[in-house]
Amino acid sequence: MELSHTMRAVEITEPGGPEVLKPCTRPVPVPGHGQIVIRVAYAGVNRPDALQRAGSYAPPANASPLPGLEASGTVVELGPGVTRYSIGDKVCALLPGGGYAEYVATPEAHALPIPDGLTMAEAACLPETCFTVWSNAVMRGGLKAGERFLVHGGSSGIGTTAIQIARALGARVFTTAGSDEKCAACEALGAEKALNYRSGDFVAMMHDEGGAQLILDMVGGPYLPRNVKALATEGRLVQIAFLQGPKVELNFAEVMMRRLTITGSTLRPQSDLAKSRIAAEVEAHVWPMIAAGKFRPVMDSEFPLDQAVAAHARMESSGHVGKIVLKVE
Known about the structure:
Layout: E1 6-12, E2 21-27, E3 35-45, H1 47-54, E4 70-78, E5 90-94, E6 103-107, E7 111-113, H2 120-123, H3 127-140, E8 148-151, H4 157-168, E9 172-177, H5 180-189, E10 193-196, H6 202-209, E11 212-217, H7 223-230, E12 231-239, H8 252-257, E13 261-264, H9 272-291, E14 299-304, H10 308-317, E15 323-327
Helix pairs in contact: 3-4, 3-9, 6-7
């Protein structure tokens, strides 16, 4: 099909708060080898977008400078070597960047078919959180049925995804959130216990249960030594973000004495091959959970593309439960 040469998009005009996001016009991307171009229906809004906007999370050298790490939409152009998808296919995809736009290019191996029964808006909520949770909690953290799993920020997009996936795997799920209402929402999704971190101590909660065998944390800072104390002997801590900073004093004697494992990862800088392997795992294991009704993305709110400023303000208020999306079409 004949594409327009230009598209509507939202760019980061300078490092700063949500107000630095501005509508713009950009050239429509041209697919490289193994890439598809997607006409974007919805783009997911994620914490890394805000970090990039603030100037603290630069995109990879070969990525679009536009924000947006996941989207749903329709395949409209194929690059050389594309074999799985055809023009007109409906997909959701992990992106190297550029999701806040009418069109985006991404490797075809990072795109997955939209699960039956999900809307385009729901599908846009899947890639970033599912890739992150599965690769860190399962592939890296080794989560198994029956284990005690603690995820911080249970009402976030990552948290609501982790609760449901872990529960579907047969784990016992514990979480923290910032209000009683958010805790109730987490328990409704399958958490055995949700603790309001403003009024309770997650270390004590996990000690009462025998300690966490796996913790998935995005808070960092003062949570790091507390996470170590909350782990069971031979427990694992997987760090995926640092909302309260990456530096902290930590007594490694406790790590050694109780044979703990501390690891972590970020998704965006990983190679295309690594992301392709994660995509294959997600399709093989998480998509059947969706088909079986064991997991469905939790939607918080939807904003038009030209209201990306309001979407970021909503995310940074921490008042949301689940995912925020931008409607592009």
